[in-house]
Amino acid sequence: MLRSGQILNILSLLVAGSYVAIGSVPLRAEDAKTTNGIPDQSIATRLPQNGDSGGVRKRLSESGISYTIIYTNDVLSNVSGGNKRGTIDQGLVEDQLKVDLNKLVGWQDMTLYASAFQIYNTGRIRRDYVGGMNTIAAIEATPTIRLNELWLEKSFFDGAASLRIGQLVADVEFFGSDISNMFLQTDWQTIVATSLPSGGPAYPLSTPGARLKFDYGKDVSFLLGAFNGDPAGPCTGDPDTCNRYGVNFRMWDPAFIIGETQFHTNQDKDDSGLARTLKIGGWTHLGLFNDQRFANDGTLLANPAGSGVALQHRGDFGIYGVLEQQIYRPRGGAADSGITVFSLASYSPSDRNLVNLQLDGGIIFAGLISKRQDDRFGASFVYSRFSDSVSAFDQDVINFSGVPGVVRDYEANLELTYVAQIVPGWTLQPDLQYVWHPNGQAGRDAKVVGIRSTVKY
Predict the structure, then answer these.
(1) Where does 297-387 have alpha helices with state H?
(2) Which candidate, 44, 6, 4, 53, places its Cα nearest to that of 22?
(3) Counting C-beta atoms within 10 Å of the first and last residue's C-beta, which end of the chain has fewer, N or C?
(4) Comparing C-alpha atoms, which of 121, 167, 174, 170 is closest to residue 148?
(5) What is the pTM of this model?
């Protein structure tokens, strides 16, 4: 097994390589398709000799080695409401390395994948300025150089099944709408991020785990993942500070397990019918979770005469569904062209979760401007409801203290955005977001404006 020092050396080499780029949320590993080592929609195609004048990238590709570098930069301003007004600049450099081990060393149907982050910011727009819990911009994290994923994958049955083992995240494949990734606020869902230890195995925290996937034909997929249940471990600060470099490699915390079934319709380029994707899933965590209202002696947590120590519950769980439905498909258009609506709904128990209901939805228009076929625009909405137990606890505090306070109810975010392709591999994305009841508090509605630039090399 690689030691932490060796991992950091590899990480440093990966990140150092990012500076050959001219400069999004992380791509899924399986989405980084290449031709002669050049990723699809790469700015390298706009450079002389595809940015590979010595042919090194092409030769590496012939040996089964390909890499992708993505640079995302956000400039965002909270112009009203929230905690305070102000502007932040944040960025993420992601380096991805994918190795076909069959080509490289003759290991049949095996793939090695590694990725690393370099993160910087001048402040956190969600935490410091808006003061909410729903994501404003999904690359927000502690500035650092960090190992992300590092795994081996073995395919079986002519590619119909695969097993992935190593340092993983769950948000890459589970519990989300793929088509909504264009929005800055699309992220690991608030309902789990606020409840699981360290927020769960999701950006920016990966953790040891395994994922099994089986495709039943081209239209149905089954996925099952098991992960270490606390990527950072015991922590008094931000979890991504306690696991700052992504090399904690915790193995023995109570497990987080998630399963999902996916149904796909009319996804091929040659299909003429409307595309649809339906995902149904559920998760469980085997650890202990504090009750949001009651103490271990049966009293209310807000009662000064009680123990003040929360009753604990064994385990937590949630169920969810995701729907993507194309409602207009241009002649000859792909599954993600035209007009598509998406929605997500999720529920978890009220007694042990900060948020017990989340509803998302949106609409996307893609390729509808005749001279801007690669542009997209749309609207996205996220609604996260504080659990009844949390609202009751807030009221209990008011009742016992006699001091007026806040009873948290919900937080809702609306995002309007336009993704404009400048050249293949470089997009600019003006963005507007409105946040109702940040952290469940009425009267603090916030408005955020800004722009994202994404370059893929």
Answers:
(1) none
(2) 44
(3) N
(4) 167
(5) 0.89
- Chain Cα centroid distance, residue 338: 24
Q: In this predicted model, what pLDDT tens digit does every residue of 381-425 receive, in sequence order?
A: 999 999 999 999 999 999 999 999 999 999 999 999 999 999 999
Residues 213 and 162: beta-carbon distance below 8 Å: yes
pLDDT, tens only, 296-319? 999 999 999 999 999 999 999 999
Where does 4-456 sit in CATH, by number?
2.40.160.180
Nearest-angstrom CA–CA distance, 170 and 155 = 19
397 contacts 407 by C-beta, under 8 angstroms: no
**What is the spatial distance between Cα 7 and Cα 2, in angstroms, rounded to a whole number?**
6
Dihedral (C-alpha) 188, 1, 236, 81: value to the nearest 10 degrees? -30
Q: How far apart are CA 110 and CA 25, in angstroms?
A: 26
pLDDT digits (tens, 9 = 90+) for 245-271: 999 999 999 999 999 999 999 999 889
pLDDT at 371 over 90: no
Cβ neighbour number for residue 12 with a 10 Å cutoff: 12
